[in-house]
């Protein structure tokens, strides 16, 4: 299997999970309880040894293949969408390394449920939010930007009423809207989130 094929297959696998994950986060606009309720429903699908092994393998394959392709393609990217593809891929690889390490560390060493409160503890506490706000926002936007750039490349070969650039721009705009909605639900500036005391260790309390 080539690096590109490995990257493509692992990317599709991760995209399914990320889509469900972002939908879960969107549900936070209805409150923490609704977010956790939806999360528990989704966990019946993906939190078992079989699916988790597939997801973990896909993430590791995505990081390895993504970093390899970045080294190969970063000097040959010509269009703006080609460059967007390369650099958002690099950010997503870095994000996955940090995020996967944090989640596994929370579960295995801190013995915390990595639920809604695990994610928002740092997001709603100064000065930690100076890191976590751009960290999460760039991850969501990079995800949609990466999809937009791939879509742009594939649609160049098709004759459509709406140009590939316009279609990809719409995907980017949608990503920005999703990011705003998610941050609306995950920040206590809007919803008055109270962090349970067992999660205070995440922010040094």
How would you describe this protein?
By secondary structure, the protein is mostly helical. The protein is 74% helix and 0% strand. The chain contains 8 helices and no strands. The protein has helices spanning 3-26, 32-46, 49-73, 80-108, 116-120, 129-155, 164-186, 188-191. Helix 1 (3-26) packs across helix 3 (49-73), helix 4 crosses helix 6 (129-155) and helix 6 runs antiparallel to helix 7. The radius of gyration is 18 Å and the shape is globular. 24% of the residues are buried.
Topology:
Blueprint lengths: L2 H24 L5 H15 L2 H25 L6 H29 L7 H5 L8 H27 L8 H23 L1 H4 L14
In brief, what are we looking at here?
This protein is mostly helical. The protein is built from eight helices and no strands.
Shape: globular
Number of helices: 8
Radius of gyration: 18 Å
Mean pLDDT: 89
- Taking pLDDT < 50 over at least 5 consecutive residues as the criterion, the unreliable ranges are none
Q: Give the CA-CA distance, first to last residue.
A: 48 Å
Helix content: over 70%
Structural class: mainly alpha
| Largest sheet geometry | none
Please provide the ordered H/E string of secondary-structure elements.
HHHHHHHH
Oligomeric state of the chains present here: single chain
Number of strands: 0
Q: Percent of residues in beta strands? A: under 5%
């Amino acid at each position: 299997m080539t690096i590109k094929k490995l990257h493509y297959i692992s990317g599709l696998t991760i995209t399914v999970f990320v889509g469900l994950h972002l939908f879960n986060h969107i549900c936070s606009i209805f409150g923490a309880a609704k977010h956790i309720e939806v999360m528990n429903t989704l966990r019946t699908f993906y939190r078992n040894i079989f699916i988790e092994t597939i997801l973990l393998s896909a993430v590791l394959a995505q990081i390895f293949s993504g970093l390899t392709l970045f080294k190969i393609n970063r000097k040959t990217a010509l269009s703006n969408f080609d460059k967007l593809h390369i650099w958002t891929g690099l950010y997503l690889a870095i994000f996955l390394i940090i995020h996967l390490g944090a989640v596994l560390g929370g579960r295995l060493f801190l013995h915390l449920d990595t639920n809604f409160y695990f994610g928002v503890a740092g997001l709603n506490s100064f000065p930690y939010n100076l890191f976590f706000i751009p960290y999460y926002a760039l991850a969501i936007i990079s995800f949609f930007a990466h999809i937009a750039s791939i879509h742009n490349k594939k649609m160049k070969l098709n004759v459509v009423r709406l140009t590939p650039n316009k279609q990809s721009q719409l995907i980017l705009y949608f990503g920005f809207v999703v990011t705003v909605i998610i941050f609306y639900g995950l920040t206590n500036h809007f919803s008055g989130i109270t962090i349970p005391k067992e999660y205070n260790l995440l922010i040094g309390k």
